[in-house]
């Protein structure tokens, strides 16, 4: 199927029906659990303001240039990431080994998805709870913390909801990404944005809004250490979906006349606003209800129910919120499946549905480890982390930035300048030079330095 799409490309029919379609799909990939679930809890674990400042710096200096780079490499290659990289290396007389970046990227996508779909399952479980609550029977009998703990303690419930989520994602990728995706992103993303604004409004009324603004934006530099910086870099990659060639896969279907720089800026802005709004919605609730901000991965699943319980029509808001969050997670999960699926389609004789079943099945098997990490295996620690935390830490904070570094070196030093400049033809010389300096020097050196600092070597 991807092969047909590639031929379509060549005959002039892009996969995305318009520039807007690509912006929606890429924003859909970027906005997800990373913004609403992960950003607030990782921010809290890393002390607030200073972390957010470094995170924003990473988005601007590393994120946007790399976002542009993945799109342009995809559009220049016009194939699945692995084959795009291979072709670009060939056309630039460079080693074919560079396509290995795509192989690793596809694997990292599976690693990230193996815990992502489990957390997405929590979201679905909450959708169910609030739906039951709405029809009148009390599903939410305990405190939010007890309710969340009970969910985590049950491997069967976790497995049920997460499998349901994964099955839907696999189904969509099997049918071809475009149709369901465009519609849901166009309609549901603005709704999610609106709902977040309502929650921020609720936070403003709670009297703890200013405290949250200070918490998020007043940098306390004494809280910074190598690990905090590494986490901020990792979160920037995770949130923008960078470093694993997912955006490159989407970039292959981008129309010729799309302005890559502007598009990257729009996607980054949309993604970052959702993360900041999520922070501004969640921390006032944490402070107003005297909750523990450093409660870790359960943060939104525990804090938001407190607010929903206190709000008028709270159950309705809750149902809408978790439904929209599940949709946001779903448009992201698709982008995590796409590179590995595209690879199998191109490399093997399997068709698209079989390929995505193989990838989805492997993800599911790996995901069982994450499911058990919240109960039976929770005490089984390596380097102080359980299986799920270890996969999350290594894939997000190490593999994504490492992938980004290699992509930057490839685009900045290996691919022929002509190919790159042609993709950025609509960019003026000054901006192009800025991009080039960022990609050749700033991104690789920054990522390398962060690794060295976090490893305690400097
Ligand atoms: N960015 C998504 C989120 O914030 C998750 C995601 C999608 C992702 N594709 C990715 C993370 C690729 C890392 C790499 O929820």
Structure, described:
With 458 residues, the chain is mainly α. It has one domain (17-454): Hydantoin permease, CATH 1.10.4160. It is built from 19 helices and no strands. Helix 4 (49-77) packs across helix 17 (387-414) and helix 4 (49-77) crosses helix 19 (429-454). The longest helix has 35 residues, at 100-134. The chain is globular and about 65 Å long. The chain starts with a helix and ends with a helix. The relative contact order is 0.20. Tryptophan binds next to helix 2, helix 3, helix 11 and helix 15.
Nutshell version of this structure?
The chain is mainly alpha-helical. Helix content is 78%, strand content 0%.
Poorly predicted ranges? 1-14
* Secondary structure category: mainly alpha
CATH class: Mainly Alpha
Largest sheet: none
Q: Averaged pLDDT, please?
A: 90
Give the CATH architecture: Orthogonal Bundle
Question: What's the arrangement of secondary structure elements?
Answer:
Elements: H1 2-10, H2 19-30, H3 33-45, H4 49-77, H5 81-91, H6 100-134, H7 144-153, H8 155-175, H9 178-205, H10 209-217, H11 226-240, H12 246-251, H13 260-288, H14 299-310, H15 314-347, H16 352-373, H17 387-414, H18 417-423, H19 429-454
Bound molecules: tryptophan.
Keywords:
mainly alpha, Hydantoin permease, 0% strand, 458 residues
